[in-house]
Design a protein that fits this description.
9-stranded mixed β-sheet; Peptidase M28 domain-containing protein; Peptidase_M28; 7 helices; Aminopeptidase; alpha/beta; 11 strands; about 35% helix
Length: about 325
């Protein structure tokens, strides 16, 4: 090549440099994803361990879980709901020991009472009667140790962003499995006024099936903002794909407590469509609410970080678009 080829050489060099930068960024992103996935895995392994004995009502295991979550919140710098404690204690009729929500928040950069609330219940069924060869500990790995692990890391992600436009509240709820007591208590004793809650984004179960392309929203009935959710997620390649059977779960999550009071609330699950659009093979998870709900070799953690990003995208969307979303039929979620 001669002098006349110099512009081509410069252009080629710039292209190579650009591709190298992309490779470094991609490697960095991959590394960050791996770190997040590993942290979620570590949280889940502890919360679902036999040491915590299924995190049942009024148990030492539940106390250990609450303490662990509070320490995670403290370590990442979340503000505590009370000056000296992240634990929001409350009584349940018939139980001697008090239960504890774990509540931390990131304050608004403005003086605002508006908030987005993130919830995930940390309780499970504890220790029950042994059946056959299966042990008697209901570890609650998918329901909902992994959801709480995701809540912790979602909070960590938000601490790395600029101060939010509105307050972000993170609530690990107690006693969900036996009457949604934790979420009920939080709504009676919120950090910021109930009427100023923009939306509750609940995590109950999380993607441990590998990378996925589709998602569904619970509930899809009684709310008017499914289009907004799809608008927020479609640019990132997420495909809305809600199955009919989900309508039977309207009252099954902490979201029902919010929705019954007219406060927008959703839980987001990933589906079974792989990134290439093909159907994933069924994964033999142990059934929830049983001693078989444990971490196994079938769990695939690779999709965890993307599921976290989905929640983060939604939260950022509603931080910028907080108005005009409504619960159109609160009676669908009545707890009476």
């Amino acid at each position: 090549m001669g002098i006349k080829d110099e512009p081509k050489l410069i252009e080629m060099a710039r292209f190579i440099q650009f591709m190298m930068i992309l490779a470094v960024v991609a490697a960095g992103d991959t590394s960050v994803c791996a770190q997040v996935n590993e942290r979620v895995k570590n949280h889940t392994e502890y919360l679902a361990s036999d040491e915590l004995e299924g995190r049942g009502r009024g148990s030492t295991g539940a106390e250990l879980a609450a303490t662990y979550i509070a320490e995670q919140f403290r370590g990442m710098g979340l503000k505590s709901w009370k000056r000296d404690s992240y634990l929001q204690r409350f009584d349940i009729p018939g139980l001697e020991k008090m239960e504890s929500n774990v509540v931390g928040y990131i304050g608004s950069k403005y003086s605002s009472d508006r908030s987005i609330v993130f919830t995930a219940h940390y309780d499970a069924y504890g220790i029950r009667k042994k059946e056959g060869e299966i042990d008697s500990i209901y570890n609650g790995a998918r329901d909902n140790a992994v959801g709480v692990a995701a809540l912790i890391e979602l909070a960590r992600n938000f601490t790395k962003q600029k101060a939010p436009r509105y307050n972000l509240v993170f609530v690990a709820t107690a006693a969900e499995e036996f009457g949604l007591y934790g979420s009920k208590f939080y709504l009676k004793n919120p950090i910021f006024p109930t009427k100023e809650i923009i939306i509750c984004l609940n995590i109950d179960g999380f993607n441990v099936s590998g990378k996925r392309q589709d998602y569904f929203v619970l509930p899809r009935q009684g709310i008017d903002f499914l289009d907004e959710i799809q608008s927020a997620l479609k640019p990132q390649g997420w495909i809305y794909n809600s199955p009919d059977w989900e309508d039977g779960l309207n009252k099954s999550f902490d979201t029902a407590v919010f929705l019954e009071k007219g406060i927008p609330a959703v839980t987001i699950w990933t589906g079974d469509r792989k990134k290439d659009g093909t159907q994933a093979d069924p994964i033999p998870f142990g059934p929830i609410h049983s001693p078989e709900d444990e971490i196994t070799e079938h769990w695939n953690w690779e999709g965890v970080e993307e599921h976290l990003q989905l929640y983060q995208l939604l939260a950022n969307f509603f931080l910028e678009n907080p108005d005009g979303i409504e619960v159109t039929d609160p009676t669908l979620f009545s707890q009476n």
